[in-house]
Design goal:
Length: about 400
């Protein structure tokens, strides 16, 4: 029972190690454990929509004046775009220097039908932000339109007569408090969830682990190197010099959400833990975090942006297609938009690859190449996505004059 007294992130780490060992050496154990993962993911999905909705509405109403909402909103969007572009440029630089795909003849392709079905036009991504029917989008768990509606709803609460405004504000604050409690309850089961999910994934992909040592290794190393640089250099510099906060301390505080992001490969599923850690450990106010984090979990994906760029250029190298500077520029732009449009769920970035590849007429079969190693890259890029959201929350909170704990 001593195990239960350990801090949550230690429990998670232990669960992760045990799951990898079990999945690899005793794959049959996945059959008995995977239900825990499913149940845990259901629990997280259960809280996401009400949590995001109440958190944004209460966040927006607490910002109160339309002017400061505008200012925080502008800072947030600027942070998202700048960090995603920096991530993409890091990837672009590395993939052009390392050239992982040049001279590679992997000679295998996997079916891409699943992925093809999900392709969408860029204009659709923006169109979908405005919900046709808010109840329907909520029921389908589409986060972006819910965020859009919640921001509008919260904003107009601040515009009605005082009598209504006070009632509505305190109702949504209460709603949000309750949702946080429900969320914390679910979060306590994270180690069990991770045990279930990771054991199953490792067991299912154990045979493919061999490939990792093969010719895809350099491609993976390129992505890892870019992600690492962004994690330990770019973002900490922003936190240090723009946010005037301590990035190392902040990183330590984020252990639980980052490990969960790595294990679940889903920014949205991690969101409840991210919010908890950013508010309670790093001391960012709910006013800032409840606005920035749900939005960031869906639209700020630095890791995904970097990955889209590296993967597209890797595919062009493998197929021996020379890309012009203009084409590389198009890749940078579409990688940014693809990362904004990707949902915070596993493999969303892979689905969005179709958008990037089509934009410069690269063969979609290229996705087949990168499919087999996507699991580990997905886990890693999701961690960076979440890390960037939390760095944004701290930086913007500081710039608004808050005294955080980092
Ligand atoms: N899994 C990622 C996330 O949730 C998105 C992606 O596939 O790149 O952040």
């Amino acid at each position: 029972m001593k195990l239960l007294k350990l801090k949550l992130h230690w429990q998670i780490l232990i669960a992760l190690v045990v799951a990898v060992i079990l999945g690899y050496f005793v794959p049959s154990s996945a059959r008995y454990l995977s239900w825990m993962g499913d149940l845990f993911l259901r629990g997280l999905k259960m809280v996401i929509i009400p949590l995001i909705f109440s958190s944004i509405v209460s966040g927006v109403t607490s910002i109160e004046s339309g002017r400061s909402l505008g200012r925080i909103g502008l800072k947030t969007i600027t942070y998202y775009i700048v960090t995603s572009l920096l991530a993409i440029l890091t990837g672009l630089f590395l993939v052009n220097i390392i050239k992982p795909g040049v001279g590679v003849h992997l000679g295998f392709t996997e079916t891409v039908t699943e992925v093809q079905g999900a392709s969408g036009k860029l204009s659709d991504i923006f169109m979908r932000i405005v919900p046709e029917n808010i109840v329907d989008t909520m029921a389908r768990g589409e986060v972006l339109p819910v965020i859009f509606f919640a921001v509008l709803f919260g904003f107009f609460i601040t515009r009605v007569q005082d009598h209504y405004r006070v009632k509505m504000t305190s109702f949504f604050e209460g709603f949000f408090e309750v949702m946080m409690k429900v969320t914390m309850f679910v979060i306590r089961f994270t180690p069990f969830g991770i045990l279930g999910i990771v054991t199953r994934e490792v067991a299912a992909n154990a045979d493919k682990l061999g490939d990792i040592a093969g010719s895809m290794a350099i491609y993976m190393i390129t992505v890892f190197a870019g992600l690492l640089f962004h994690t330990v250099v770019t973002l900490p510099l922003i936190v240090r010099f723009i946010g005037k906060a301590n990035p190392v301390k902040h990183f330590r505080n984020m252990a639980t959400p980052l490990l969960t992001a790595f294990s679940t490969a889903s920014s949205s599923a991690t969101l409840p833990l991210t919010m908890e850690a950013v508010e309670h450990k790093s001391g960012v106010s709910n006013r800032i975090s409840s606005f920035i984090l749900p939005l960031g979990a869906t639209i700020n994906m630095d890791g995904t942006a970097l990955y889209e760029c590296v993967a597209a250029i890797f595919i062009s190298q493998v197929y021996g297609i020379e890309l012009t500077v203009t084409q590389q520029f198009i890749i940078v732009t579409t990688a940014l938009l693809a990362s904004i449009g990707a949902a915070g769920i596993p493999m969303a970035g892979l689905v969005m690859m179709t958008v990037v590849l089509t934009s410069v007429h690269l063969p979609l079969e290229g996705i087949g190449l990168i499919l087999s190693v996507d699991l580990i890259l997905d886990m890693s890029r999701t961690t960076v996505n979440v890390w960037s959201d939390t760095c944004g929350a701290v930086t913007i909170a500081k710039s608004e004059g808050e005294t955080t704990k980092v």
